[in-house]
From TrEMBL:
Gene3D superfamilies: CorA soluble domain-like, Magnesium transport protein CorA, transmembrane region. It comes from Deinococcus peraridilitoris (strain DSM 19664 / LMG 22246 / CIP 109416 / KR-200). This is Mg2+/Co2+ transporter. It is a multi-pass membrane protein. It is found in: Membrane. The keyword Magnesium does not apply.
Amino acid sequence: MLTYYRSIGGKLTTVDEYTDGCWINVVTPSHEELRQVSRETGLSMELLQYPLDPDERSRFERDDDGQLLIVLQTSQRLGEDSDIPYDTVPLGILHTDHCLVTVCAQDNQVIRDLTSGMMRHLRTAKKNRLTLQVFLRSAQRFLIDLRRIDKQIEATEDRLEHATRNKELLDLLKLEKSLVYFKTALKANELMMERLKRERLFDLYEDDQDLLNDVLIENLQAIEMTDISTNILTSTVGTFASIISNNVNQVVKILTITTILVAIPTLITSIFGMNVPLPDQEDPWMLWVILGIAFTMSGSIAFLFHRLRWF
């Protein structure tokens, strides 16, 4: 899908076709759509296809024609049925002399935030500033998803206190896997942006330098939050694995004690229920005497277990 944007009167507006100074957003494109973008912008098909690789890492490159490709890792929230709740997806940012192009294999939340007006002062003609704003929103999106992960961890911990199954632990392990992906992506983004700043890949005004510094700070904060969440989650998984094992042991202990207490009356009544002559078997009170002996013994054993604090 191709969408053309242009800032008109200080607002980001959708336009019908390519014009100089526009921003072209490409999402899950077909081969024909890529060819159309290539004809309109002069970008090579090879550069346009790089960001569509799900294993593409954060980097940038400039070809001999001066075309610039920046690949940025962004966070992606997946569905409840996915193996992991959060993943990362590469977002390509391509500069030409007359426009900016973003390419992604999935509908990207970072781009949705920008086009929905969550960031102000977007100028499609200012490609460098717009690129830095994409960087900033990507770092902020990581922070938002990290806070959501922390809330999910807390909710799972509440359920784990009385859990005897592995479902809650598996949920935590999925979140831990997401944090690993986040940490890897954020580190790669940091290295890419530090190199971009060091090599002065494109001209930056003073405000742009400040914006790039803000991006690096936000990215570093996301890395630190990921480290903290990972450490907490690792210790939590180990602790609650022991708690689940202890909960299972408690259940087994209660069942064992219950079996013992029920077995005593069963044993006594079985003896007196045998088809052989027994003392005082004609006495009408003998039934209640037998039951009294059985339940007295069970009560005594239960009292003994209670004194020993076995339950």
